[in-house]
Here is the input.
Amino acid sequence: MAKLSIQMLFVVVALVCAFVPVLSVEEAEAKALWNTCLVKITPKCALDIISVVFGNGTISDSCCHDLVQEGKLCHDTLIKYISDRPSLIVKEAQFLKKRDDLWAHCVSISKTV
Here is the structure.
């Protein structure tokens, strides 16, 4: 099971790094955020969050709790970096709205428990 979790972590990190703009002006800031934020959330939840914002995925209540624990700054910044990717920038406004909607949903879930 631990081996699977480590493999999932590598998949998440690879996916996230693939979406980070290569020539980003704030590259050091982005690296610091990855190192700070990604340790606060499970790889499965990170994939679920990405699938909700950039696709039609769903998120569990437990992942919502992880997301809220991660913090709004981490969530906003990580999704912004991914949505700034040249291949995604056309739909950036849509992704940022989905990001905000997901945050509001997860905050409401976290308050009920």
